[in-house]
Amino acid sequence: MKETPSYGKNHKIDLAGMATSAVGLFAIIYGLIVKESHPHWSWFDGRVSGLLIGGVIVMIIFVLIEVRVADPMIDIQMFKRPHFLGTIIIAFALGSGIYAYNAFLTALMQNYIGYSAVQTGVRQLTISGWSLILGPVAGILSSRFSKKWMIVGSMVIGGIGFFAMAYAISPTVSFVELWPGMVLMGITNGMVNPLLNTAGMEGALPQEMGMVSGLLNVFRQFGTTVGVVGLA
Fold first, then answer.
1. Which tens digit of pLDDT belongs to each residue from 181-207?
2. How far is Cα 78 from Cα 216, in angstroms, rounded to an integer?
3. Which residues cross the membrane (predicted)?
């Protein structure tokens, strides 16, 4: 049996990159959380803008470190590839859209419509259940059709779902009115997620796959945070 080659042998841990990325992302995300918790505060309030600007500065320092070190935690050159950059943007859009909207749907169903936690969870399957159904389907179709256009088409479906949800929400909204938009959002989630991971890995070197996977998850989660604050 052929042994899998080791790509991390003799590589040093990028401690400076780990520290600056953690501090920078924490400052930005915490700044967004502070703004969400205090909606009456201005974006220019020092308690908000100080964290955001400080986080951006630290992230710039992080990029400068990654460019200079011999064994970077993230190879900045990957962002020059249009294919990879596109998957990162889609991951951010998915997080700031569907995942962020999901948080408000939970609050809407429990606090306004009056469903219990269990009833809300069952109705949320309208979105999450499609991942179980469409995951294998997306894998089969991706071997026959372009992943790029499948992702674009699925995102368009999700956009239609958002407009349907925005049109349906009112002081007297019911699940029946939310259901069509939730189905469309679920289809988008079920199709895009598996395609995004495989599309992001295409063209990546074996030693870059961990970076690609990590960055997709980071941008997806960061997009969720930005989306929740933006919708608040």
1. 999 999 998 899 888 888 888 777 777
2. 12
3. 12-33, 48-70, 82-101, 121-142, 149-169
CA distance 93 to 101: 12
Contact by Cβ (8 Å): 192, 219: no
Tens digit of each residue's pLDDT (9 = 90 or more) over 87-146? 999 999 988 888 888 888 888 888 888 889 899 989 988 888 888 888 888 888 888 888
Give the pLDDT of residue 8.
Answer: 57
DSSP state string for 84-96:
HHHHHHHHHHHII
Joined tokens for residue 51: 């964290």
Spatial separation of the C-alpha atoms in residues 232 and 227, rounded to whole Å:
8
Q: Torsion angle of alpha carbons 99, 198, 19, 16, nearest 10°?
A: -160
If phi > 0 it is left, if psi is from -120 to 50 it is alpha, else beta; for residue 114 that is: left
Enumerate residues 6+ apart whose C-beta is below 8 A from 11. 71
Average the pLDDT over 22-41 and give the result.
90
Q: Where are the alpha helices (DSSP H) in the chain?
A: 15-37, 46-68, 82-94, 100-107, 117-142, 147-168, 175-201, 209-231
